[in-house]
Amino acid sequence: xxxxxxxxxxxxxxxxxxxxxxxxxxxxxxxxxxxxxxxxxxxxxxxxxxxxxxxxxxxxxxxxxxxxxxxxxxxxxxxxxxxxxxxxxxxxxxxxxxxxxxxxxxxxxxxxxxxxxxxxxxxxxxxxxxxxxxxxxxxxxxxxxxxxxxxxxxxxxxxxxxxxxxxxxxxxxxxxxxxxxxxxxxxxxxxxxxxxxxxxxxxxxxxxxxxxxxxxxxxxxxxxxxxxxxxxxxxxxxxxxxxxxxxxxxxxxxxxxxxxxxxxxxxxxxxxxxxxxxxxxxxxxxxxxxxxxxxxxxxxxxxxxxxxxxxxxxxxxxxxxxxxxxxxxxxxxxxxxxxxxxxxxxxxxxxxxxxxxxxxxxxxxxxxxxxxxxxxxxxxxxxxxxxxxxxxxxxxxxxxxxxxxxxxxxxxxxxxxxxxxxxxxxxxxxxxxxxxxxxxxxxxxxxxxxxxxxxxxxxxxxxxxxxxxxxx
Length: 472
Prior knowledge:
It contains 15 helices and no strands. The protein is mainly alpha-helical.
């Protein structure tokens, strides 16, 4: 008991010393905050009075943080004007301009890709046209191969029989046309001379007051022009020989490509699918057969329509006793593969031959026959035979034929419309396929949304579960 007063005395001295130190720290903290602005009192925790709660020399954490912040970044004075923060540059650009920019660079990438693709196609134009011609011939002959295989013939034998028959028929038609032209060439030249003389007499007796001297001057100028441009005519002839060599080369490439497409077309298609990315492969695999059906329908329908045109126009020319009726009918058949333009060119050729050889009246009658058959073809045959499988807008037909002719001449004009028809089919299928995939992977509706999208009964029909009776 004698030690208790000494222990209490020491405890009191330590508490007094601790209180003085806390008062000193509080005064220092208030002085530092007073330099930056208004002083804020520091609230000490309730346990600060205990000797064991706060060690000697400790500083409150909040006061330390505020002092450090005040030392690093002083607060602005009260009279300083407020400065607005700068907006994000992306947010400063209007939404419409951002959309236009996003679409523009994508269109530039597509335009560059198309430009490079067209350059590559122009460099290998002969190969591309030969392969496209092989596709068209394969689409025409493939049903025959399938029918022969159903009769029990092996694939190789069915392909060989179909290809040989097809190429033999095409060769015979070409030989017959050349034979008819060569056989009627002398008669045609005589009739052309007679037609020119008849035209000369008609001009002399016409109300245009054309004199014989003017006609002779025109003939002399034409003869002089031909004699002066002999070199250019010779160069054009040599270019014609080069074109003939290219045509023969393209025909051989088309024949070999047709053989392989008829024999191994399915395996080639599967190999092409392996080049497509895995994510896009199901859509392309579904679009391919539909594109082939569209191409087959176009080729078969066009062949049938061209055959009907050639037969009826050829019969009309033959009844009117126009020379070379069969070659003209073959030309009409071939030019029918060029939509719109081919019919005009072949009809004009028939009218000119009739005018030169048989006179104005026969030419007018041939014109009536051509117009009548072409009107029936355009309004009856094509909608009935081709149907909805290859329906393309007339404006798209005209623009595609013009673009194909500018890029690749007659061959481009021939393949332009089937290319547009196939592209239309593929794009339509891929759009529908993408929408179905989006709906398939969309989360299933729940709650009120599920009720909104649930199938509703037809107006006037009883609700489900009512047993045919109306529930009230």
